[in-house]
Amino acid sequence: MVNPKDVLVDVIGLSKQLCAVPIEGELAYATKENFLGRVVDGYHPDALEVCLLTRKAAEQLCDVQNEVVKQGLGLFVFDAFRPLRAVKNFSSWYREPLNNDFEKERKQVHFPHLKKEDLVRLGYAPETISRHNFGGAVDLSLMRLEDKQFLDMGTVFDFFDSSSHLDAKAEIIGEEALQNRELLVNVMESFDFLPYPFEWWHFEYHKQEVADPMDMEITPDLKGLGLSKCLQ
């Protein structure tokens, strides 16, 4: 089995070296502000900006950032490498009742029209293995550099509904959101990231660099991981 520390790179740290304007990000599952309503196993709450990807995916994402900066935009990462233990945490959560008022609030934000058990069946969330476990998938959006505001994408990140699908029409999400999604998809595809039809925010690097899913807690000490190998 590969050691995750040997193949993963801190993409935000790398972007500070390779990009005119660094990529920004905050791991949604290292906070309570996510669809579970709690910090997810494998994410340390003090490692919000430790966004890890395999080397080629990280380098290519920096190229994406340099491209969108030309348009006054920047990338914002919600999730990148996801430990396998986090998916196991998801799997147990699907089978639990909503435990408190905060979880009920998060349900209204992320899946108001669905039940927990619908999320796996409809392709919105993994039950055993995620593409994120291999280090080549990333969840992100675009923001304006001048005011740090997200572009209108029609829904929030992790909104589990047909309105998050890439084939959602302007009549549902609005013309501006449709154009912004097309912009994001086009620029990501131009640097070899493949979109996921059900989630406008999810992209996967076209070449899987690791054969097996990885499990490593994302902790503050991983900030700067792998930079020396990329910059040598």
Any overview of this molecule?
The protein is an alpha+beta fold and 232 residues long. The chain has a single domain, classed as Muramoyl-pentapeptide Carboxypeptidase, domain 2, CATH 3.30.1380.10. The chain has nine helices and seven strands; from the N terminus they run H-E-H-E-E-H-E-H-H-H-E-H-H-E-E-H. The strands form two sheets. It has a five-stranded mixed sheet, covered by helices on one side. Strands 1-3 form a two-stranded antiparallel sheet. Strand 6 and strand 7 form a beta hairpin.
SS-based class:
alpha+beta
Count of separate DSSP helical elements: 9
Uncertain parts: none
Largest sheet: 5 strands, mixed
**How many β-strands, per DSSP?**
7
- CATH architectural group: 2-Layer Sandwich
- Percent helix, as a range, is 25-40%
How many domains, as an integer? 1
Keywords:
globular, 15% strand, 232 residues, 9 helices, five-stranded mixed sheet, Muramoyl-pentapeptide Carboxypeptidase, domain 2, two-stranded antiparallel sheet, alpha+beta
Question: Helices and strands in order, then pairings?
Answer:
Elements: H1 4-7, E1 8-10, H2 11-18, E2 24-25, E3 52-54, H3 55-69, E4 73-79, H4 84-94, H5 101-110, H6 118-121, E5 137-144, H7 170-173, H8 175-190, E6 193-196, E7 199-205, H9 227-231
Short description:
The chain is an alpha+beta fold.
